[in-house]
Design goal:
- The complex is a heterodimer of chains A (227) and B (218).
- Chain A has a single domain, classed as 4-Layer Sandwich (Double-stranded beta-helix), CATH 3.60.160.10.
- Helix content of chain A is 13%, strand content 51%.
- Chain A has 4 helices and 15 strands.
- In chain A, a hairpin with a 6-residue loop joins strand 1 and strand 2.
- Chain B has a single domain (2-215), classed as Mitochondrial biogenesis AIM24 (Double-stranded beta-helix), CATH 3.60.160.10.
- In chain B, 14% of the residues lie in helices and 51% in strands.
- Chain B contains 4 helices and 17 strands.
- Chain B has helices at 48-57, 118-122, 179-184, 206-215, and strands spanning 2-6, 13-18, 23-27, 31-35, 38-44, 63-69, 73-77, 85-97, 102-106, 109-115, 128-141, 146-151, 154-158, 162-165, 170-175, 189-194, 197-202.
- In chain B, the strands form 3 sheets. In chain B, strands 3, 5, 6, 8, 9, 10, 11, 12, 14 and 17 form a 10-stranded antiparallel sheet that branches.
- In chain B, strand 1 (2-6) and strand 2 (13-18) form a beta hairpin.
- The longest helix of chain B is centred in the first third of the chain and has 10 residues, at 48-57.
- Strand 12 (152-164) of chain A pairs antiparallel with strand 4 of chain B.
């Protein structure tokens, strides 16, 4: 599979080129355009058997869909364009046997060699991280595509790093995070609008998004008419 | 202090590198991420009274956060909506910012509050405007792209599109045309600015987004 990411960072899409027999698993609704030589299958399980209804339901809790779409090229040189519904960035992450923990709605697509499963990060993180209750755990090897609100920037963490809630896209599982306060004093942290933050430690790569969906929602929400 | 604006103009954000002794002051909730070596301290924005006034009438936070470091560190600052960020270096001069535009400044910059007038309040531009003065860099953001214009006499800007202007600019609210065309042209109230001086405008307005979204909800 070859890939190209176009229209970065505001309206990014990934253009994938597959050879006959290759397949890719995408989020439901991600397909924008494709060649005619694809076989499309919708299932609740990972390609090749893993998963099933329970994993599908867990994925639903992680902010993803119960179903997954599998695109398999039946002819050589087939192209598929995928993108998220929201404005924002798309990045490619090459998986090489490790595990990447992805924020609920940021998983876009992955090669069939990657196993995707929902994971629970604990009650404290579920309530205070500003992200969903569950996270998507990707493991295995192959191409992985993630999306975000805003631009994505990588941070190579060695030691400690602080991320405001709502800005996490994904992180390698060699990193751990805990919920903490942004400043020295708890009251100051809340008055200063930063409140709680996610404090990462360990060694590994972290992906953040430049913009914060809850902050945008807080501004736009009051201006919308009641329904 | 090194500061770089990335991802212009759609999702602009500021990447800052701090050395010991350097400080950057940012609007509440502007921090996206930072090194653990960066300290954050919350302060009243321009004093207690001004902070409260700013919250009540300027629809901005009462507080700002001051970031500093003992060794060295990096931080990323952002704004709540998609759009561009502009950086201006003040050298003793003053700039007025519309409510919500201020993002960050260096420690030599003073944050004050200027009376904008009842008419500006009626036009929903806020009763107060933020006055930045002193020396140092100021960063402000906009919903959409930012474009600037040097005004010699009079110029008309749709309400909600003015972001910042120099103090030599006089601002008043007017109608786009006559009574009829002002109400039915979709322009309604506009901002009339009189120079000489420079103004900064945004290519979209947040009110426009809300109106568009409301019209498409079902």
């Amino acid at each position: 599979m070859q890939y190209e990411i176009l229209s970065r960072p505001a309206a990014s899409v990934a253009k994938l080129t597959l050879e006959a027999g290759e397949s890719v698993t995408c989020e439901v609704g991600a397909m924008i355009a494709m060649s005619t030589g694809f076989d499309v299958q919708t299932t609740t399980r990972n390609k090749g058997g893993g998963g099933g209804i329970v994993k599908g339901l867990k994925r639903m809790f992680a902010g993803e869909n119960l179903f997954l779409n599998h695109f398999t090229a039946t002819q050589p040189n087939q192209t598929l364009i995928i993108g998220p519904g929201l404005l924002g960035d798309v990045i490619h992450y090459p998986m090489r046997g490790g595990t990447l923990v992805v924020q609920g709605s940021s998983w876009l697509a992955s090669a069939t060699g990657i196993d995707i499963d929902a994971t629970w990060q604990g009650l404290g993180k579920a309530l205070f991280s500003g992200e969903g209750m569950f996270w998507v755990k990707c493991s295995g090897s192959g191409d992985l595509f993630l999306n975000s609100f805003g631009a994505i920037y990588p941070v190579d963490v060695t030691g400690e790093y602080v991320v405001d809630t709502g800005h996490i896209v994904a992180f390698e599982d060699t990193l751990q995070f805990r919920i903490g306060k942004a400043g020295k004093s708890l009251i100051g942290s809340f008055l200063g609008g930063e409140g709680l933050v996610c404090k990462f430690s360990g060694q590994g790569r972290l992906y953040c998004q430049s913009h914060n969906p809850p902050s945008f929602g807080k501004l736009l929400g009051p201006k919308l008419k009641p329904r | 202090m090194e500061a770089e604006i990335r991802n212009k103009p759609s999702f602009a954000n500021i990447h800052v590198k701090l050395a010991p002794g350097e400080r950057i002051i940012a609007e509440a909730d502007a921090m996206a991420s930072m090194s653990s070596t960066v300290n954050m301290q919350t302060k009243w924005s321009g004093g207690v009274v001004r902070g409260i006034l700013r919250r009540l009438f300027g629809s901005e936070s009462m507080f700002v956060n001051v970031f500093s470091t003992d060794s060295q560190g990096e931080l990323v600052l952002t704004q709540p909506f998609p759009g561009d960020i502009e950086c201006i270096e003040l050298k003793g001069n003053t700039l007025y910012l519309q409510p919500g535009a201020f993002l960050a400044c260096e420690s030599g910059v003073k944050l004050g509050l200027g009376w904008a007038g009842i008419r500006m309040f009626i036009a929903r531009e806020g009763l107060f405007r933020l006055k930045v003065s002193g020396t140092g860099r100021v960063w402000f953001g906009a919903y959409g792209g930012i474009f600037q214009r040097e005004i010699s006499d009079e110029y008309v800007v749709d309400s909600g599109h003015l972001v910042a202007y120099e103090p030599s600019i006089r601002v008043r609210i007017g109608m786009a045309g006559g009574i009829f065309s002002s109400f039915f042209s979709g322009e309604g109230l506009v901002t009339k600015v009189r120079g000489p001086g420079r103004i900064y405008m945004q290519s979209r307005s947040f009110g426009g987004l809300a109106a568009w979204t409301n019209a498409h909800l079902y």
